[in-house]
Amino acid sequence: MEGVNGLVNLVCKTFRPALLDLFRGGENFYYCTFVMTVEGHAPFLSAWSEEALARAVDESGDGPEVAADLKWSYADSPYVDFGSEYTEKLRAPFLARPNLQELGADEWEKEIELRMDAVEQAARQLDEEGAFGAGQRRSRLLVAVEIMPPVPSNVERVARLNDTDSEVFKQWLEEAAEVDG
After folding, report:
1. What is the torsional sign of CA 61, 67, 71, 74?
2. Is 107 helix (H, G, I), strand (E, B) or coil?
3. How far apart are CA 135 and CA 156, in angstroms?
4. Does residue 36 belong to any structural domain of this protein?
5. CB 56 within 8 A of CB 64
6. Distances in Å between the alpha carbon of 42 and those of 11, 91, 95, 134, 181?
7. Under a CB-based contact definition with an 8 Å cutoff, are residues 122 and 11 in contact?
8. pLDDT for res 61
């Protein structure tokens, strides 16, 4: 069974080429998220660019109302599960982890946190390598590691992965973050 370091390395190795392919198109991405379900399935990639959002709004014919609904929706993105030809390699290692359905509540929580920590560490490492860009390009991109359906701990992970003073983080926090309160 892979430990957290093994999972971090595997997630980095798997997502690196997917991110290269995603950003190669030259669109202005503002949201890039690694999504995992509460069942602990292998993470997948989703993203939104300004251009993709504009295309989706144009196709819908509903104008600004639809933009607000789509802007941060990983599931509605044309880039949902982007790079699945790469990320498919994560399925078996995640399935080899303890079966969450067979664990008690405490063990389940520890295992899901281990998986999320591994994905967050991988995202941080990829960021340090420049996979999400640098300078102004990076400051306009929100990088997220999220569990779906949304949980409040998503906000903590997103805050750790981004400059909390950036405009894109403030927009996400106001428009999409699931917070207690």
Report:
1. negative
2. helix
3. 23
4. yes
5. no
6. 9, 5, 8, 27, 30
7. yes
8. 77
For residues 130 and 4, give the distance between their C-alpha atoms in angstroms, rounded to a whole number.
22
Please give the Cα distance from 120 to 124 (Å, whole number): 6
Residue 83 token pair = 């790079």
- Cis ω for the linkage preceding 93 (within 30 of 0): no
Look up the domain containing 136 and give its range: 4-175
Separation of CA 16 from chain center:
13
User: Which residues in the chain land under pLDDT 50?
Assistant: 1, 181
Distance of CA 164 to the CA centre of its chain: 17
Burial of 14 (C-beta count, 10 Å sphere; 0-12/13-18/19+)? buried
Domain count, the chain: 1
Which residue in this structure is represented by tokens 């003073």? 165
Residue 181 within a domain: no
175 near 135, Cβ under 8 Å? no
